[in-house]
Amino acid sequence: LEPQFIAALRLLPKHDLTFDICVKHTGMAYALELVKRCPEVSFVLDHIGKPDIKNALREPWWGLIKELARYPNVVCKVSGVITEADHQKWTVDQVKPYVAHVIESFGFDRVMYGSDWTVSELTHAYPKWVEIVDDVVNGASDQELRKLYRETAIRTYRLPE
């Protein structure tokens, strides 16, 4: 939140660039303040803000996600979640509510899939993560799934189709 950093961030739109916010749940209030101060900047919240799944903490992360989702210049990357749980004892049921909350808060237009591979190998194999996300979005339309798994990332990062 230093003034020089904020000034530098405000240059990004001139170059058609996005800024990825990578914070743990303890830094979410700072992420929110950053977004408030730079409404012209396109942001991606990485790893859903790294909630404290290991200790089953929801607040203040849960509420801050809702508040951050109110800003149209923020997209949330659904990745790097399981590594925030107990590496040896995590369960799918511990992880799913956090993923579901982000998707519900941001909507399919503003969430994108991410794997966090190779870091994710500390806790799970890549196909397991796809299985979990697929389970959370079970019942979503084909269009919603395309947004989650492809279109939001293409639009946000201005990737070639």
Shape: globular
Share of β-strand residues: 5-15%
Rg over CA atoms, rounded to whole Å, is 15 Å
Total E-strand runs: 4
As residue ranges, the low-confidence spans are none
Describe the strand arrangement of the main beta sheet, using strand numbers: 1-2-3-4
Structural class: alpha/beta
**Oligomer status:** single chain
Average pLDDT:
97
Overview of this structure, please?
The protein is of the alpha/beta class and 161 residues long. It has six helices and four strands, in the order αβαβαβαβαα. A four-stranded parallel sheet has the order 1-2-3-4. Helix 4 (92-106) links the parallel strand 3 (74-78) and strand 4 (111-113). The longest helix has 16 residues, at 142-157.
Q: Tags for this entry?
A:
161 residues; alpha/beta; 6 helices
Can you lay out the helices and strands and say which pair or pack?
Elements lengths: L2 H7 L8 E4 L6 H10 L4 E4 L15 H9 L4 E5 L13 H15 L4 E3 L12 H11 L5 H16 L4
Helix pairs in contact: 2-3, 3-4, 4-5
Brief overview, please?
By secondary structure, the chain is of the alpha/beta class.
